[in-house]
């Protein structure tokens, strides 16, 4: 099949590369000529494990191409995927659909035959209706179907998630579009990956409901972690104890400094706004958003407490800046609020991250960036583990302590056992233990 992917960011590039690896002919489109030139040169605009190799192999095989020419890419396509950004709109938190509708208008002008238009971007309920309305107005009388096909990719594990999905959700009641989508996902269908066909609005809502539920699990265990600290319990044992219940499950029950990234923050806000528009408030999600926002600053106060209650004139080493490991994504990362709270308290911050520092420099120019964890910790009064990158799981603790002005560790990911850290000479604090 011939597939066109509008948008060559995280979702579009990963999806396009994986579809081409299935044997389809894929053209990825982007308005950013610099990005397209870099992709043609084999340089990835994002860090995602294995993506560079996957892209290179399929470019070499002739199945994957990149272009800025949307009109030429859409002409003759069997399926056109819209995978552009839908950030939170400034001021009100609604999903900004400017890029989706702009792409739709350009697609409409380029259509030259029967085609299926697929919204891969995360969009509020009813967006597909508007996309269909625009296409009917501008694209003439060609048979066109609009399908919702949300992505469920975890940054850092996106290729595996695409090729071995828990489920594939396809929102359409059009028989021809259903067959086209079956053909698109045929390799996964043969592997018996579950394909769920629903109405288009239902499909759009599934994505938001899934992310809101996962965000709720994270926020729930974070609040239980605070209770554990107050009563003298261990949140890791609580997580295991409840996670062994199949009705609950163990995933997303790891206490930490709060969720961030490109999906949960904006998607929970967008769900709230949709619920408000339809006068059906989702109070649980409202609480999740509020608790998560306040938790990030609270983690900064936790570090200040570990410093004796006063951070003025002290130096803090922050290990990990991205919102999770195996990505360079800094969007809504807990580190942003934690570092700002430390700076506001008068501390100097030295930081290290394996992949996120170049992006972080533009967001936090006032802190020092270091070559590794040991350089960051040299002369510091405390070291804080914010992101659980593998390289922070096996630090030489005695060496680390020996470089510091005061051996204090605040482990916001519960990477270490207290006994091991204290044996190395640290004063140690963690989450919910």
Task: Give the structure's gist in a few sentences.
Helix content is 45%, strand content 14%.
Keywords:
alpha/beta; Rossmann fold; six-stranded parallel beta sheet; 18 helices; UDP-Glc/GDP-Man_DH_C_sf; oxidoreductase
Instruction: Tell me the count of domains.
Output: 2
Which structural class should the secondary elements be placed in? alpha/beta
What is the end-to-end distance? 54 Å
Proportion of helical residues: 40-55%
Note the main sheet.
6 strands, parallel
Strand content: 5-15%
CATH superfamily of the largest domain: NAD(P)-binding Rossmann-like Domain
| CATH domain fold name of the largest domain | Rossmann fold
Mean pLDDT: 96
Radius of gyration: 23 Å
Uncertain spans? none
Shape: elongated
- Any idea of the CATH class of the largest domain? Alpha Beta
Task: Give the assembly state of these chains.
Answer: single chain
Count of strand segments: 14
What CATH architecture of the largest domain do you see? 3-Layer(aba) Sandwich
Q: Strands of the largest sheet, in order across it?
A: 3-2-1-4-5-6
Helix count equals: 18
Family: Belongs to the UDP-glucose/GDP-mannose dehydrogenase family.
Domain UDP-glucose/GDP-mannose dehydrogenase C-terminal: 317-418
EC number: 1.1.1.22
Keywords: NAD, Oxidoreductase
């Amino acid at each position: 099949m011939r597939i066109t992917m509008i948008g060559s960011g995280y979702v579009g590039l990963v999806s396009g590369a994986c579809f081409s690896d299935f044997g389809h002919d894929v053209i990825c489109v982007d308005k950013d000529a610099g990005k397209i030139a870099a992709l043609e040169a084999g340089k990835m605009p994002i860090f995602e494990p294995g993506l560079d190799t996957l892209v290179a192999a399929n470019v070499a095989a002739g199945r994957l191409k990149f272009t800025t020419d949307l009109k030429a890419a859409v002409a003759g396509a069997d399926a056109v995927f819209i995978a552009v950004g839908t950030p939170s709109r400034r001021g009100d938190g609604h999903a900004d659909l400017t890029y989706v509708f702009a792409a739709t208008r350009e697609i409409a002008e380029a259509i030259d035959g029967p085609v299926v238009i697929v919204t891969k971007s995360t969009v509020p309920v009813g967006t597909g209706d508007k996309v269909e309305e625009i296409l009917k107005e501008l694209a003439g009388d060609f048979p066109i179907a609009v399908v919702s096909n949300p992505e469920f990719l975890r940054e850092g594990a996106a290729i595996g998630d695409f090729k071995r999905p828990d489920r594939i959700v396809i929102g359409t009641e059009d028989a021809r579009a259903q067959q086209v989508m079956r053909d698109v996902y045929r390799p996964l269908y043969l592997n018996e990956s579950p394909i769920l066909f629903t109405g288009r609005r239902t499909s759009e809502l599934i994505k938001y409901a899934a992310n809101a539920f996962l965000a709720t699990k994270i926020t729930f265990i974070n609040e239980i972690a605070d209770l554990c600290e107050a009563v003298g319990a261990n949140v890791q044992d609580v997580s295991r104890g409840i996670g062994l219940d199949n009705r609950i499950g163990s995933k997303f029950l790891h206490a930490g400094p709060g969720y961030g990234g490109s999906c949960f923050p904006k998607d929970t806000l967008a769900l709230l706004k949709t619920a408000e528009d339809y006068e059906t408030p989702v109070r649980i999600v409202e609480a999740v958003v509020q608790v998560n926002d306040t938790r990030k600053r609270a983690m900064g106060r936790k570090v200040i407490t570990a410093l004796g209650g006063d951070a003025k004139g002290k130096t803090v080493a922050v290990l990990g800046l991205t919102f999770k490991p195996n990505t360079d994504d800094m969007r809504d990362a807990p580190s942003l609020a934690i570092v700002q709270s430390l700076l506001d308290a008068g501390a100097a911050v030295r930081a290290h991250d394996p992949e996120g520092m170049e992006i972080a420099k533009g967001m936090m120019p006032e802190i020092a960036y270091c070559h590794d964890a040991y350089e960051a910790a040299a002369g510091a009064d405390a070291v804080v583990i914010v992101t659980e990158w593998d390289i922070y799981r096996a630090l030489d603790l005695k060496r680390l302590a020996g470089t510091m002005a005061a051996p204090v560790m605040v482990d916001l990911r519960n990477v270490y056992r207290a006994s091991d850290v204290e044996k190395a000479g640290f004063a140690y604090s963690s989450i919910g233990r």
